[in-house]
Write a structure and sequence with these properties.
Oligomer: single chain
Number of strands: 31
Strand order of the largest sheet: 9-7-4-3-2-14-13-12-10
Helix content: 10-25%
Largest sheet: 9 strands, parallel
CATH architecture of the largest domain: Alpha-Beta Barrel
CATH superfamily of the largest domain: Glycosidases
Length: 563
């Protein structure tokens, strides 16, 4: 009878996997320091507590977990023990190394209070040599223990004040962006910290190469806050943020004001980002919102072979949103992200499993001894490594023709690509074929010049075909033969409209807001830059239907939205 029981369990597991929707990235859970257990054991040595937490995480069906070593006594040894136990439960580990370790700083380095999380270090005071010494010891322990590592992430949200005291509080809030004066005193300090961070990354990369000459673990940047506009909370809390894509460009050494700077992105395998979408975004616009948030950073690393790791994402459980609605929002978010084939995702980590702080309970999926409905996403989706990992798929109008470029990170059993074109994004016709690489772990590039594009907007789609006849389709891209492939959507935060514009050039323009009867409620002059732009209109709205119109350059964009 026992053998029959286990056979049934196995068959149920197979059936469950078969019913799950395949996605091209691993789906995991974030769980902060495992020493944060309910008994407050600061050493993290109470293994019964953290083992129980990891057991519950593994039971969700998650394939990986984001953990960090703790800065307390015996931090390295306990961390390795925890990681090894996670592996034994079938969980790969993304190791987030915080900048809070005293070993990283000169003796007697002070911490400073700012933001919500108490005292913290200034990134510019970190000692890259001391940090590498600590990392060398830790990495050796990971190697001996044969830890199965998804990636190593250095730091967390270092582009805003709650995790990096270089980004100090600012009266009324502040966004450091491309318009920030280069010689601004605090901005200079922020750049000094990014330089030190780059030196640490370089040392970590070199040490990984020494200890892991083959099958080296991937090294990624800290998960960055992707906020592109200060909201009322940031303003009232004097919050300061560094624009995420500018932070990456400063690390890369490609900011327009930098000269002869080291490109520290060369020492990273991926970029960490945190995506917290608006709960008010309509279902059909979730993909656009992801592109608005992640697009500027993705544009920097696209075609480089580097991946985007979403080391935190999630929706809060806030009234009147039910847990069922929260679950559906997570489901649609993951589904939308999986369909963005021009984004090379390294993994998504849901924030968060549980948390001892009552302030974080709105984000958890495990509460009062039970899994909440949102945890079901780990049953709904299964990670399927694609035979072809598409890194980029884009097109650009050049004169009377359109050039289509795409690239792959790796290919397995791949016979060919077929390129299709459409005038309406519904009916497609094949216009070109490109031979695949068979099997390759090297980045490969493909191109096609459409010398006779259709009038107006051209839609393109790739079909990837394996030698065994299996195939998959990419997302659809749109290319205009004239200027424009801009898009527009509106979110509402605390009754204030936030206009999100994906623009295909640089231009001055005007945003107009009307009520449903055509009465103009607001008008604001703006400067739009190529890529994602987010503008909050200084008006509070009541429930109703509104229309926003954006005029910039030769384009006019119109969107109706509801509050």
């Amino acid at each position: 009878m026992k053998s029959v029981f286990f056979a049934l369990i196995f068959l149920l597991g197979v059936l469950k996997s078969a019913l799950a929707q395949s996605i091209p990235f691993p789906l995991g859970l974030h769980r902060p320091n495992l020493s944060w257990v309910t008994d407050g054991n600061a050493s993290g040595s109470n293994s019964d507590e953290w083992k129980a937490i990891l057991d519950k995480i593994a039971a969700t069906g998650a394939t990986c977990v984001r953990l960090n070593p703790n800065p307390h006594f015996q931090g390295q040894a306990i961390s390795v023990e925890q990681l090894k136990y996670a592996n034994s439960k079938g969980l790969k580990v993304l190791i987030e190394i915080p900048i809070t370790f005293p070993d990283f700083y000169p003796i007697c380095t002070k911490k400073y209070a700012t933001g919500s999380f108490g005292e913290k270090h200034r990134l510019r005071e970190i000692d890259p040599v001391k940090m590498r010494t600590w990392f060398t010891s830790y990495l050796a322990k990971l190697k001996v223990a044969e830890i199965d590592i998804a990636a190593i992430e250095f730091g967390n949200e270092l582009n805003w004040m709650d995790f990096n005291n270089d980004v100090d509080a600012y009266p009324g809030g502040r966004m450091y962006d491309y318009n920030t004066p280069w010689n601004d005193t605090q901005y200079v300090k922020i750049r000094e910290g990014i330089q030190k961070y780059g030196e640490c990354i370089k040392g970590m990369y070199e040490e990984i190469g020494i200890q892991f000459p083959t099958d080296r673990p991937k090294l990624i940047s800290c998960g960055l806050v992707m906020q592109r506009q200060l909201d009322s909370w940031h303003i009232s809390h004097n919050a300061a943020i560094v624009l995420s894509d500018m932070w990456i460009k400063l690390l890369q050494g490609t900011h327009p004001n930098q000269q002869s700077s080291t490109n520290y992105l060369n020492y990273l395998d991926g970029i960490g980002i945190h995506l917290y979408p608006s709960p008010d975004t309509p279902e059909e616009e979730v993909g656009d919102e992801i592109k608005a948030l992640a697009g500027p950073v993705n544009a920097i690393i696209q075609n480089s072979g580097k991946m985007l790791y979403v080391t935190e994402f999630g929706y809060r459980s806030i009234s009147p949103v039910s847990e069922e609605d929260r679950y559906l929002k997570h489901y649609r978010f993951i589904q939308a992200a999986s369909q963005l084939s021009s984004y090379q995702w390294g993994g998504f980590y849901l924030y968060t499993f549980d948390h001892p702080s009552s302030a974080e309970n709105d984000w958890v999926i495990y509460k009062k001894g039970e899994l909440l409905k949102t945890a079901k996403i780990f049953e709904d989706f299964s990670y399927l490594m694609l035979p072809v990992q598409l890194n980029a798929f884009r097109g650009a109008a050049k004169g009377k023709s359109i050039t289509i470029n795409w690239s792959t990170v790796s290919e397995t059993n791949h016979e060919r690509f077929e390129l299709f074109r459409s005038s309406d994004a519904k009916e497609f016709s094949k216009i070109a074929t490109r031979t695949g690489a068979g099997s390759s772990n090297q980045q490969r590039y493909y191109t096609y010049e459409d010398i006779k594009p259709l009038p107006g907007t051209n839609y393109y789609r790739l079909k990837q075909i394996d030698f065994d006849g299996k195939y998959s389709n990419s997302e659809v891209i749109a290319v205009h033969t004239k200027l424009g492939s801009s898009s527009l959507f509106v979110t509402v935060s605390e009754e204030r409209p936030i206009v999100n514009i994906l623009f295909m050039g640089n231009a001055k323009g005007t945003i107009y807001l009307y009520d449903i009867f055509g009465k103009k409620l607001a008008e604001q002059q703006v400067v739009l830059y190529e890529g994602s732009n987010q503008i909050a209109l200084p008006i509070q709205l009541v429930q109703g239907i509104y229309v926003v119109r954006v005029s910039a350059g030769t384009e006019t964009l119109v969107k109706k939205f509801k509050v």
